[in-house]
């Protein structure tokens, strides 16, 4: 099977899926844990593949699970699978290195955001296509945010009007993401952070509540409800 989805598409999506899922508790690597009877990664890839602009999907799998992940995803969508690294950033770099010639837009999307709608993939890619070299989906921060010091004593209340909670997929001109990873130092938690360090402006688009990251057991329970409700 070719690893290409839409040959006219201009978007490659990298899916870091090599994390352990420590915060979710003991079990299989998080991307392989079940949501509605199917691994999180299957849900994520199915939704990415439904986005019409997507040309190629590259999954960074846990190193010991590469063959199993290829087999798992074969009936879902044509994908390339590479071994991930010890940090998310290394997993993204490995997937980026495997993108074939062609796509000029690269999105990076956590397998853990399993219910992300295809429309968000399209809106992030569309903003890159429109001229923004780096694009992130964001949500407003809904809670009051406190800065806390030693002994759990509040130091102050943070002005949250300028704060945003950041999701994936994050989208980039391919050359911009490649240069940012080539220059990367200590691992950061997201790719936009690397691009910011290069002085490239990062543009925000509205995120989606359904793009929640399954991080803790509560998130998985919430995702189960959303899936059962048809998302
Ligand atoms: N070495 C790593 C670490 C993380 N990821 C991926 O990056 C995404 C976001 O990471 P997170 O949700 O924090 O996953 P984990 O690192 O698995 O979580 P934890 O810190 O609880 O172990 C996930 O899809 C995860 O599989 C990865 O590909 N390679
Ligand atoms: C990339 C990310 O999902 C954006 O919210 C997030 O930064 C991943 O961070 P984590 O600490 O590895 O969950």
TrEMBL record:
Pathway field: Isoprenoid biosynthesis; isopentenyl diphosphate biosynthesis via DXP pathway; isopentenyl diphosphate from 1-deoxy-D-xylulose 5-phosphate: step 2/6
Matching SUPFAM superfamilies: Nucleotide-diphospho-sugar transferases
Site (Transition state stabilizer): 23, 30
Site (Positions MEP for the nucleophilic attack): 160, 213
CDD domains (alphabetical): CDP-ME_synthetase
Keywords assigned: Isoprene biosynthesis, Nucleotidyltransferase, Transferase
Domain of life: Bacteria
Gene Ontology molecular function, alphabetical: 2-C-methyl-D-erythritol 4-phosphate cytidylyltransferase activity
Family: Belongs to the IspD/TarI cytidylyltransferase family. IspD subfamily.
Protein name: 2-C-methyl-D-erythritol 4-phosphate cytidylyltransferase
The organism of origin for this protein: Micromonospora purpureochromogenes
């Amino acid at each position: 099977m070719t690893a290409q989805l839409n040959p006219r598409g201009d978007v490659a999506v990298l899916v870091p899926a090599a994390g352990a899922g420590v915060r979710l508790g003991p079990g299989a690597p998080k991307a392989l844990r079940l949501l509605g009877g199917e691994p999180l990664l299957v849900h994520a890839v199915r939704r990415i593949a439904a986005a019409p602009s997507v040309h190629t999907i590259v999954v960074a799998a846990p190193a010991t699970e590469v063959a199993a992940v290829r087999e798992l995803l074969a009936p879902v969508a044509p994908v390339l699978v590479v071994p991930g690294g010890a940090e998310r950033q290394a997993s993204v770099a490995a997937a980026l290195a495997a993108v074939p010639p062609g796509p000029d837009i690269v999105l990076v999307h956590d397998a853990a955001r399993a219910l992300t709608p295809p429309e968000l993939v399209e809106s992030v890619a569309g903003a890159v296509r429109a001229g923004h070299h780096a694009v992130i989906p964001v949500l407003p921060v809904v809670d009051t945010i406190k800065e806390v010091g030693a002994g759990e004593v509040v130091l102050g209340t943070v002005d949250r009007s300028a704060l945003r909670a950041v999701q994936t997929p994050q989208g980039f001109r391919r050359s911009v993401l490649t240069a940012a990873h080539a220059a990367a130092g200590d691992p950061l938690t997201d790719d936009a952070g690397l691009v910011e360090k290069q002085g490239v402006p990062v543009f925000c688009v509205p995120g989606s509540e359904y793009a929640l990251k399954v991080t803790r057991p509560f998130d998985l329970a919430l995702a189960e409800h959303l899936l059962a409700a048809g998302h």
